[in-house]
Please model this.
Amino acid sequence: MISIIVPVKNQVVLLKQTLTSLVPEKDGHEIIVVDRGSVDGAEESLRTMPWVRLIKTEAQGNQGLNEASLKAKGDILLFLEPGVWLERGWPAFVEEAAEKPGFKVGCFRLSIEGKNPLYRLIEWTSTMRTFLFKAARGSQALFVRADLAGGQPLFAEDTSHADFELCKRYGEEGVVIQIRRAAVHSGDRWSGPGVCRRFCSDAGTFWSWQQGGPSPVNGHQSGSGRNAVIMLLDRPEARRSDTWLDDAVGADRSAQIYRRNVEHILNSINGSSGETDTLIFYQPKAVREEMIRWLGDRATLIPQHGETRKAARLADVGSHFDREYRKIIVLWSQCPALSKSEIKRAVDALDDNEIVIGPTDDGGCYLIGVKKFDPEFFQELDWSRQDMYKEVLQRAKAQRVAFESLPPLRDFDSLEDFSYNYALGYVQ
Model:
């Protein structure tokens, strides 16, 4: 029996895709979801899938995988990322590999959907890395003998090189086999200008590991790791703070403009970097299915409830992170002129600064970026002040940290702003 272990935290849409892909060949095997504290409805969605075994844990990162490995019942453990699916016929190939003399570790061939030539290069280098160096990544759906570690943790708990280390540790003693079936990734996860950057980042991680360099801890190391872009959203139909826009164009049209603004900003985020996680915190909590229908898998959707003040909502978001991000960008959703160039510039500015600020032309802010998420910093901000930009600037100076200001953009909180943005085509 094969135990398929899928770790998840606030990735319910991607989780559903992966579990659905396993249905045709699930019989006779065990499917385990390791939930590391999701608040996006993952547990509720699994109630319609009684064949999935749920393990809830507070352990983060590789510790959750180790915990599930010890509880699994299969002879073979297969680790699968949310949003990845396996080509049909995979069980027979995994079992065939496991029967070969000396087998200890195996993996799938990496496949990325799409016609981008860089995808083929990434696939080829992945195959050659496994063949020449016996080094496979978690993105290739690693599988191992269940008795491999003899009751000890399989993965190093505090390193993002854990997949390479696993292959090295047991590959030297036995065989690392790459089977002829693929672990398929959607091209959307690699698309945009981030393809080259992600390819170089992966190559750099492998080279650092080969040279015995420092291993990123909890996904964080200067020069490596991922970034986060955060937005706070409401259900459009529940938004009645912009009464000026409702009065000008009607409630339905106002909600439509809000949706388009959000979709435009999401497209800008996804086009700015392939190393960025988009986290959307929304309320009310009860509209989860509506938010999924609207935004799909373009972002990780996390519900909030209780507090309505923006400062308090922002102060809460850090508790939902499942990794330590290198850079964190907070965006205000009502700035139609925002484009991927501003987001990319903000991310790049944090290479040499602790804070980056995007001011609006009326003294507010459309963007605040930081290297380390400090709940108190956001909790104490008064987002209703017209001189919020000045307040953030004063704090940066008081803390004596390096900061950079981006060019100002036109806000969207008056009829005059609407006319301006409409005339330039930012609002349709």
Notes: The longest strand covers residues 175-185.
